[in-house]
Amino acid sequence: MKLFSINKLVILVVSILASSFLYAQTENLPKTSAGFPVNYNEDSVGNYTLPDVLTLQNGNKVTDTKTWNEKRRPELIKLFEEQQFGKMPSRPAEMTFNVFDKGTPAFNGKAIRKQVTVYFTKDTTQHKMDLLIYLPANANKPAPLLLVINFAANSNAVDDPGVKQGYIWSREGQKIPAAQGRSMGKLDVASFVAEGIGIATVYYGDIEPDFKGGIQFGIRGHYLKPGTTQPAPDEWGAISAWSWGLSRAMDYFETDKQIDAKRVALQGTSRLGKTVLWTGAHDPRYKLVIASCSGEGGAALSRRNYGENIAHMTDTSRYYYQFAPNRHNYATDFNSAPVDAHMLVALMAPRPLLLQTGDTDYWSDPKGEFLAAVAAEPVYKLFGKKGPGTDVMPKAGEQTMLNTLGYYMHAGGHGTIPSDWPVYIAYLKKYL
């Protein structure tokens, strides 16, 4: 009994110290954003009840994979389409591919470089994206591939002078040449091809610009109904547009005999973490997803009022354009939304999903992402797959939760850092 009491005291002391440390880290952070309060205090998160991911809208319980695949999964996809990300058009009949770099040796002969332009419309002067692909030079069969949707133009994403000059969007709504030099989107091509894994990238701005009013320049504008300037309440925001573009990339991969289209993974960071999570949920052709620091609107629970919330995301001065207009309806009452992040996470089941975050990325709520994985785990268990297996968060840097539904938290803040790439490769080798 005495030992039990001592253990309880130790746990209490550790908990108090951890809470004090977190308070010290967050007390100087801004208390408002876009005019809305920001909470970083666990005691002020508020009460919430998550919708049961395994209960159909008619109240019946899902107890087998057939019911999940044929009933519950379609229900959730429809809800996310209508209430969060927006409905997307299907594959365009007039889409074409131009493989203008058919396989050039790169990285000291260790990789084969391919470059492809995907034309979304018959008019090849607009609405197109460039895919940059590197495959292992010594591959004797179709290679698995990781596609990274990037904030950087392809020519900035790698140290390879043979890559076509990229263009990016300026804040003034103009496409300008991407400046040469290092950027946040650099890819470690050599490490991937050395492990027999191909790696590809696409600049997200090729699909849809990332600013208010970008709809007039991007693919969404092409699909606007005559006489309208904005999508309908349940139609796509920019995240769904980027996701749509990733599905068009998969359309190309299925035609390339050097790529194993059954083993293609996705990775994206921040708003592009939201994008790859939604893409994996919506397009089951993608085998595996790594969603990095996806936060609010991604893997972090919206009902958990911590860091960024729906009100911040849907404010018209900020990121309203990234979501279906219907998402704004829940800005004043997070609990009224019919969906939450654990449902989005569960839509990847039974395919591998790694939620990667950072222990000081308070704005994106790393605990909220972990709790979403815990709440989604019953769906993975339905398929005989493993999730976190505990409700105790791992410490930063621990690779103890690289399960089919995995969670990894680096020591640091928002974004992908160099130490994350070896973890990604280990996860890909395990499941891809």
TrEMBL record:
- Give the GO molecular function terms: carboxylic ester hydrolase activity
Cross-referenced Pfam families, in alphabetical order?
GCE_fung
> Which stretch is the leader sequence?
1-24
Q: Which UniProt keywords apply?
A: Hydrolase, Serine esterase, Signal
The 4-O-methyl-glucuronoyl methylesterase-like domain covers 235-384
From the Swiss-Prot or TrEMBL record, give the protein name. S9 family peptidase
